[in-house]
Write a structure and sequence with these properties.
By secondary structure, this protein is α+β, with helices and mostly antiparallel strands. It has twelve helices and eleven strands.
Length: 294
């Protein structure tokens, strides 16, 4: 089924296509040549334009946003909405990709541009309003002309996400706390839960099973990094699963605990910042070094 057929099927319901749900697909500079972009922009009908995009890119599967009673925003309205958007980082700094895959090939992300944006967001303890981010970038001498495109690329790489208002976050927090507590409590017996809920972004974040075991250990009273690792390794072995070292699965509780102790600091360093920023679990206890228990 192609997009024009979907449009025809949804027409009786007064639904019309608004945009692709994939941010990286929206950016013309990474997907089309200048000539192709010019021709696409000359197509007035949005559905036909999307069909032409599919033909040019060879895309077979789509994820779209369809709306009812849409009203096209003016340029100033779009600018205002963009400036009021709140952003938050989803990953640790070293996990920001250096490139993204698009129709024209692999596009490298300029560290000076994208790195500066992510660093400003990463330094904040919570969501940052776009207008404040733009102001800070401007004082650093950065050009703001391509900033909307840059934000869409970071969004499409799942490095950042739009954040909800503080009021919506506070309203959702009790429910996500209860849900995440339940999901983490199931980690010793259910290795197939891979996502925790965030009230900040109104969605989920993928959290590996090993990290869930470590978080559950902290949640249930482990007060040092090694205690978290030992308890997580014990649960892992009970599930007939093992840690892996140099591509080889380990045997026995002692070996798994030793490897878990070695990897636990890496897991916490990678996931603790986004877990805290996205309010994925209440931080009742801090994990410390073995020689400095809380």
């Amino acid at each position: 089924v192609v997009v024009d057929q979907v449009g025809a099927a949804l027409d009786p319901s007064k639904l019309e296509i608004a945009a692709s749900a994939e941010p990286l697909v929206r950016g013309p500079m990474h997907n089309f040549t200048a000539e192709q972009s010019q021709k696409l922009n000359a197509i007035p009908d949005l559905v036909l334009r999307e069909l032409a995009r599919d033909v040019l890119t060879g895309r077979q599967f789509r994820r779209d946003i369809w709306v009812k009673g849409s009203r096209k925003l003016t340029g100033s309205e779009r600018f205002d909405v963009f400036n009021r958007t709140r952003w938050v980082t989803n990953v640790a700094r070293d996990k920001v990709p250096g490139s993204v895959k698009c129709t024209l090939g692999e596009a490298k992300l300029d560290e000076k541009n994208y790195g500066a944006i992510f660093d400003l967001l990463d330094q904040a303890k919570g969501p940052v309003i776009q207008s404040q981010l733009s102001e800070k970038l401007s004082t650093m001498g950065a050009s703001l002309n391509s900033l909307p495109q840059s934000m869409m690329v970071l969004l499409g790489s799942w490095s950042i996400a739009p954040a909800q208002s503080d009021e919506m976050i506070e309203a959702a927090r009790p429910y996500t706390d209860r849900l995440n507590k339940h999901l983490l409590s199931q980690s010793p017996i259910r290795p197939d839960y891979h996502v925790l809920a965030s009230p900040v972004i109104g969605g989920g974040l993928a959290v590996p099973h090993v990290m869930q075991l470590l978080l559950n250990a902290r949640m249930t009273g482990a007060s040092t990094m090694d205690q978290c690792a030992d308890r997580a390794a014990e649960w892992l072995v009970r599930l007939n699963k093992t840690m892996v070292r140099n591509g080889v699965g380990l045997t026995g509780l002692a070996e798994n605990q030793a490897e878990m102790r070695a990897q636990a600091p890496v897991f916490f360093a990678q996931f603790d910042p986004p877990l805290s920023r996205l309010a994925l679990m209440p931080r009742k206890q801090n994990v410390t070094s073995p020689n400095n228990p809380t």
